[in-house]
């Protein structure tokens, strides 16, 4: 079983690239972030044509998440994170696929800081940790995947000094992420690449892609029941270099059935 995550940065603008990636790599489950469309604008029919069924949680112009499954319908188990009823951002969607629980995450960026956006990011991360603990207690094989907007360590960025003032690298952001891992979740890419140097995002500006000035913010967190079955994880980096690509590359983890 291959579980993937892809911040598509606008599903309408990147649809040809997304369909191309799905057909070439054929993940069992694909979690999408920043679909940037309202529910009625989601192109479900295009995925049906190539054998994928979808659920989605859209929002006009920004945010938005979706879960696609190859040949089966994802069974929705959670829409939005508990804990802040007034939060209307479309950032979390969860489903059951082939006996595995999959949470699709688009964590707040948090810039500029200090300020309300950074405070919201930290609150959201605490809410995520609380919900993750609830999932943990159920002992269901679970993957929490997506764009976490956190660079976990200096080894996960091409130049730590260049990002030092960004919300993605603040000690509070890193500590919140570390606390989730300390609760027993396995960072698939981090575990298999302990020396770092693996990027999942390259900015459109300043020739970042051409110079390989990237960093790792797309993560695949596995519960013990799923981590024990992990057989590999990686980044489909080549797809970042294609015409009209997203600024993120897809990430994936493979687990034994």
Automatic annotation (TrEMBL):
GO BP: DNA repair
Site residues, Interaction with DNA substrate: 248
GO molecular function, one term: metal ion binding
Matches recorded under CDD domains: ExoIII-like_AP-endo
Needed cofactors: Mg(2+); Mn(2+)
Entry's EC annotation: 3.1.11.2
Binding site for Mg(2+): 7, 34, 147, 149, 247-248
Cofactor remark: Probably binds two magnesium or manganese ions per subunit.
Keyword terms, alphabetized: Hydrolase, Magnesium, Manganese, Metal-binding
Residues at the site labelled Important for catalytic activity: 218
Site (Transition state stabilizer): 149
Superkingdom per UniProt: Bacteria
Keyword Metal-binding: yes
PROSITE patterns in alphabetical order: AP_NUCLEASE_F1_4
Pfam families given in the database record: Exo_endo_phos
Residues annotated as catalytic: 106, 147 (proton donor/acceptor), 248 (proton acceptor)
Name of the featured protein: Exodeoxyribonuclease III
Gene assigned in the entry: xth
